[in-house]
């Protein structure tokens, strides 16, 4: 049975009605569409390319099943010729994209599709759906990672994500963004992401007391157990964790840490650290969780709160401060002719484009340049093209989408990014130049 998220029917109706008109009127020439973000949200200084692999997987499996066609026929909106066209439709076009983990900016095409117009049109909804969310979460996670200054950060967001697919994409996207792992088990299976997790408050409540709960858990999972200490009272929980540690060490078990999930995390962590150190357990780590994001993590780190790691969930998987991107998938060429949109506030540049990133002698990013693909492009060791061929005539020609590669690529990109753009507050915009020799801007 086809996964519903892979279904070509996971689209807007008007994609299909437009496609039928295209087929009826012979508008089936090669089209080029580009996905891009029109403008940065006020709270962002950069974005991160992500979700490309999911789009490639979608395209590889793109086809209409007999059940899909029966449903479309039942709507009374589509004729037999069009349904026959759909029955044979597969993606045999070309895709160009930035590598996942690449930092990018407004108006830069992240992904381009070249295919017969009806087919390229049918892909719009799902491409925007996947890329927008993946980019949102990877970009948000990158900010949290920067704010943590190298401390461990783990994705705890599945239960608050807007559905299961969003939770999986968030786990992958946040890992690319610099998180150290996820609590989502299926993400560990699918993507090879390290999985983390110990106990919930319900586990503590199910026992007669905290000490029994801690001992039972550590004896079942003696490798690096972490105790949740805020079910009843944080100070009492820390003292119980110390008592449990004293017992367990005699059994050869060395608890790894404690987790605080509520209250004033700065104050509670300082109290916990003091108690642990006084007991001689300065090696026991303190993990904090509970409605954290880049802003709260930054405040805790800047205040020197003795926290060793963070569990981050709701505010990242929902990208609470920026819940959507002003992004689009627009036609820029059809049958060899460049096309564009003039609408105020939504104008587009015509033609299939390339993004050239310019660097200084130390490898730092200076500016980006938009050029046309059919014009001469000047590249060098300090000027590199960001868009690469990914699919040619329906076949994947660049499968370098390993999640660890994307994660490392983002680290490299952030090292090249001007420091002021890594700040959590709004900074002067990074320059994206439009080559005047390629575009008539008059």
UniProtKB/TrEMBL annotation:
InterPro entries: Aldolase_TIM, N/Namide_PRibTrfase, NAPRTase_C, NAPRTase_N, Nic_PRibTrfase-Fam, Nic_PRibTrfase_pncB, Nicotinate_pribotase-like_C. Residues 9-131 form the Nicotinate phosphoribosyltransferase N-terminal domain. GO terms for cellular component: cytosol. Keywords: Glycosyltransferase, Ligase, Phosphoprotein, Pyridine nucleotide biosynthesis, Transferase. Transiently phosphorylated on a His residue during the reaction cycle. Phosphorylation strongly increases the affinity for substrates and increases the rate of nicotinate D-ribonucleotide production. Dephosphorylation regenerates the low-affinity form of the enzyme, leading to product release. Pathway: Cofactor biosynthesis; NAD(+) biosynthesis; nicotinate D-ribonucleotide from nicotinate: step 1/1. GO terms for molecular function: nicotinamide phosphoribosyltransferase activity; nicotinate phosphoribosyltransferase activity. Pfam families: NAPRTase, NAPRTase_C, NAPRTase_N. This is Nicotinate phosphoribosyltransferase. The lineage of its organism: Bacteria, Pseudomonadati, Thermodesulfobacteriota, Dissulfuribacteria, Dissulfuribacterales.
């Amino acid at each position: 049975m086809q996964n519903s998220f892979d279904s070509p029917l996971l689209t807007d109706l008007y994609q299909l009605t437009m496609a039928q008109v295209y087929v009826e009127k012979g508008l089936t020439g090669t089209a080029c569409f580009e996905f891009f973000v029109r403008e940065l949200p006020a709270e962002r200084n950069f974005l991160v390319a992500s979700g490309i692999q999911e789009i490639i997987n979608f395209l590889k499996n793109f086809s209409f099943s007999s059940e899909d066609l029966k449903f479309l026929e039942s709507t009374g909106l589509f004729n037999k010729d069009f349904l026959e066209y759909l029955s044979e439709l597969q993606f045999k076009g070309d895709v160009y994209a930035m590598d996942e983990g690449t930092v990018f900016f407004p108006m830069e095409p992240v992904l381009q599709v070249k295919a017969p117009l009806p087919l390229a049109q049918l892909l719009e909804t799902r491409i925007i759906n996947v890329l927008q969310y993946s980019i949102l979460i990877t970009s948000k996670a990158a900010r949290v990672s920067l704010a943590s200054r190298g401390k461990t950060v783990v994705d705890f967001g599945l239960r608050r994500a807007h559905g299961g697919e969003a939770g999986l994409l968030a786990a992958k996207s946040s890992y690319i963004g610099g998180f150290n792992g996820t609590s989502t088990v299926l993400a560990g299976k699918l993507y090879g992401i390290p999985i983390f997790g110990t106990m919930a408050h319900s586990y503590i409540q199910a026992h007669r007391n905290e000490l029994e709960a801690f001992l039972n858990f550590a004896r079942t999972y003696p490798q690096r157990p972490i105790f949740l200490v805020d079910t009843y009272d944080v100070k009492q929980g820390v003292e119980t964790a110390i008592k449990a540690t004293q017992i367990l060490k005699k059994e050869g078990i060395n608890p790894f840490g404690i987790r605080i999930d509520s209250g004033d995390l700065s104050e509670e962590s300082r109290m916990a650290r003091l108690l642990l150190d006084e007991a001689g357990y300065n090696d026991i780590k303190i993990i904090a969780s509970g409605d954290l994001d880049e802003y709260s993590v930054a405040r805790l780190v800047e205040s020197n709160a003795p926290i060793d790691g963070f569990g981050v969930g709701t505010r990242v998987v929902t990208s609470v401060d920026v819940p959507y991107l002003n992004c689009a998938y627009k036609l820029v060429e059809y049958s060899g002719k460049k096309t564009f949109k003039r609408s105020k506030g939504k104008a587009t540049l015509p033609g299939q484009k390339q993004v050239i990133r310019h660097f200084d002698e130390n490898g730092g990013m200076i500016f980006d340049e938009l050029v046309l693909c059919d014009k001469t492009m000047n590249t060098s060791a300090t000027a590199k093209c960001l868009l690469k061929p990914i699919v040619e005539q329906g076949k994947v020609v660049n499968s370098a989408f390993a999640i660890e590669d994307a994660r490392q690529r983002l680290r490299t990109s952030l090292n090249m990014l001007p420091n002021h753009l890594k700040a959590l507050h709004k900074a002067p915009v990074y320059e994206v130049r439009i080559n005047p020799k390629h575009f008539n801007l008059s």
